[in-house]
Design brief:
Elements: E1 22-25, E2 28-39, E3 46-50, E4 56-61, E5 66-76, H1 79-86, E6 89-96, E7 99-106, E8 117-125, E9 129-133, E10 139-142, E11 148-151, E12 157-160, E13 163-168, E14 174-177, E15 180-186, E16 192-205, E17 211-217, E18 220-225, E19 231-235, E20 241-246, E21 252-254, E22 259-261, E23 265-269, E24 276-281, E25 287-291
Parallel strand pairs: 3-7, 3-9, 4-8, 4-10, 9-11, 10-12, 11-13, 12-14, 13-15, 14-16, 15-16, 16-17, 16-18, 17-19, 18-24, 19-25, 20-24, 21-25
Antiparallel strand pairs: 1-2, 2-5, 5-8, 6-7, 20-23, 22-23
Length: about 290
């Protein structure tokens, strides 16, 4: 496969004003530097991105020019300290057949991070797969047809498209639009929102927040669970499924014929011999299973 041009592994091809600025943030001074590195990524490549204390944004494009845009941050009590700290925030790019790895790391990992870190914005071909990792930062991926794996904390995850998604964060939301395949979605103290799903197999868990799902489900077992939050499923009117749904201290509602509703449960089948089985549980929140309207 084509990889990164060799010179790119040694130096930045293009600097976007490689600026260093200082500002007071939470009692610290921050120095930043921005740069842009051109990439060549073959179709079907696995793109692995890892950063710390920063945002990751990946955008699929049909443009042959692909690149990574980097914003590095150093922090300290003075401008000189911040500039010295900035030199310890490194971004490395490595290519091998079928794999591209972009890594932001510290040269001195034992030092406290402060506000130092790195944000990465990457343009890739649409037919790649992604493994994205960060901490204390949001992660976004759009217009990619391959699989998407995301691990972060204290940051939201947002995806558009993709087949087979494995997304995990804490203390923030997960928002997924137009996915297909298997979905494993996990967070806490954050909402989960799945829109326009296409024949997905779903496992979605959170706490202290709502879960909403719309679209079509593939044959098989599906689990949707939260605590202290509303849970809503919106499915095609001709969907054939069974459901075991429950809540406490919340309203229960459905407009699917054949389902049995009590004060705290929704159970039953929409037609005989359903190939789709749904488990849906919440506490202290409403439970709704509704027909998708045009």
């Amino acid at each position: 496969m084509r990889g990164i041009r060799p010179a790119l592994l040694l130096a930045t091809l293009t600097l976007l004003g490689a600026v260093t600025t200082g500002c007071a943030v939470n009692g610290t001074v921050v120095a930043t530097e921005q740069e842009r590195r051109a990439l060549e990524i073959a179709p079907g490549t696995l793109v692995i991105v890892e950063t710390f204390n920063g945002r990751v944004s990946v955008q699929g494009t049909i443009d042959p020019e692909t690149e990574v845009r980097i914003t590095r941050r150093g922090s300290g009590t003075t401008q000189a300290d911040a500039a010295r700290d900035l030199a310890n925030v490194l971004v490395e790019v490595a290519a091998e057949p079928g794999r591209l790895t972009i890594t932001a790391r510290r040269a001195d990992p034992t030092r406290g991070l402060g506000n130092s870190g790195a944000d990465l914005e990457i343009l890739v071909p649409t037919d790649v797969s992604l493994e994205l990792r960060s901490s204390n930062g949001r992660v976004e991926a759009a217009n990619v047809t391959g699989s998407i794996v995301v691990r972060t904390s204290n940051g939201a995850i947002t995806t558009r498209g993709g087949t087979d998604l494995d997304l995990d964060t804490t203390n923030d939301d997960i928002s997924v639009s137009g996915p297909a395949g298997r979905l494993f979605l996990r967070t806490s103290n954050g909402a989960i929102d799945v829109r326009s799903a296409v024949l997905v197999t779903l496992s979605a868990r959170t706490s202290n927040a709502r879960v909403t799902v719309s679209g079509s489900l593939a044959p098989g077992r599906h689990l949707v669970a939260t605590t202290n939050g509303d849970l809503g499923l919106t499915l095609p009117g001709d969907a054939v499924f069974s459901i075991a749904g429950s809540t406490t201290n919340g309203t229960v509602r459905t407009d699917f014929p054949g389902l049995v509703v009590t004060e705290t449960t929704i159970d039953g089948e929409t037609a005989p011999e359903p190939a789709i089985a749904i488990g849906a549980t919440t506490t202290n929140g409403s439970l709704e299973v509704m027909i998708q309207r045009p």
